[in-house]
């Protein structure tokens, strides 16, 4: 393992990333972008998971204490995921809280805050397109809406757009079709039960202000045995990874989560290195139609347009080739970069060879190969539906004068749809298998930790189970009650073994940065471990696992293990009152 020294002439800059927790896909995808950008730019990253400020939920102030280590001794600049940590305080309260970080370059994500740089998205076009689509394409008239937190500006904007779209289309606003949520999955399910059971409503569609609540909406509709999309269409917002794996796949509004993390790192590093502070970046949103809004059900009735009749479809295709290529690229929305350049031309060529009788399955092989590459990179395979629809529209128009080839083309497109469906099923199965493996590893780790009697056994249990969780290191710092600056390093586990335990044990306020510079990791998760009434200390974990649930579960297991070890010993640890 490469180790650096704090005395190195050009130490890596360290960025603090402030988030509520990591067991939500929204947070994890933005963090993933920030982590990758920091690594590519030679910077370190400390992810402080400190809960929602001003909320008593999930630990409250004890969880908020995770942000106490955000100080110049540890970070050179900070990124605030304001759209999550500030949902109780609102923009004004969050700005007041951020005054404690005024000595550091700061970037706010999802909420514009005066005096600091920001990365936000243009919410209006995406959510407006989604609701207009429900009205115009699917003739929805009773559209319910699940709101986000009142203090969240993005949630309020999405709600305002919902009301304005209804008004613009002559649909009366019905307050009974609006239910408040908190951006979390259980509130989406509760909203459905409130609408259908308590209020007696049966909407044709439900729009949720984010995907997490939309997933809850799907759960609630399933419990009520209401079919999606046949009886109720469902639309979310964010396009988190889970949206592709729901059944049916979730229609949503894509906001560039990964890109927000990358842009935030660019802005904060620019300011750290002397750039102009306060730069504002606005990224675009995009409506993504999937099966949950009834799209793709009426594929056979797609209009094919009007084309001049030709004796040869090749002549018609050559005439329109550049238009077809451009339309295919637009349909893919930049999601097929993994396929390399000219993927559009290769797809058309494979289809043309089959239609001319030169080959029988070139088109199918091309689709299969492309699906494999996209799924391998965790891309959005649902884009293939839009690409196929675009290609079908153009090709059938070119085949107006050739009924035999037109029938063959329909068979080829149907086979391609089947391949996409099979790929979707495989992806969902792989996702379930992966989650089962994570669940099993976490269950084993939890059982081992909860049986520990003391710190030595806790360290042994962490050492044994860390690899199966995909983590490279774990450090546990214990603090005296009411004195967060009194940290004592009690557990240090790393692979290869951490050699600087004695030196690290002497660190206090700058321990997280010191561990990064000492080579323990290039990115660390930092959060408090706590009991019902007090903060016990801090856990620092290698930020290498892709699944944020791992961090939140391990933090909870360590909290419980420390508390149980104290009870078994019959006395609090040294320094406790």
Structure annotation, total helices: 18
Gross CATH architecture of the domain at 122-258 and 286-293 = 3-Layer(aba) Sandwich
CATH topological fold name of the domain at 122-258 and 286-293: Rossmann fold
Helix and strand composition category: alpha/beta
What is the tally of beta strands?
Answer: 16
- Report the average pLDDT across residues: 87
Strand order of the largest sheet: 11-5-4-3-1-2-15-16-13-14
Structure, explained:
47% of the residues are buried. The protein is of the alpha/beta class. Among the domains are: 122-258 and 286-293, 3-Layer(aba) Sandwich (Rossmann fold), CATH 3.40.50.2300; 305-426; 451-569, Beta-Lactamase (2-Layer Sandwich), CATH 3.30.450. It has a 10-stranded mixed sheet, sandwiched between helices. Strands 7-6-8-9 form a 4-stranded parallel sheet, sandwiched between helices. Helices cover 46% and strands 15% of the residues.
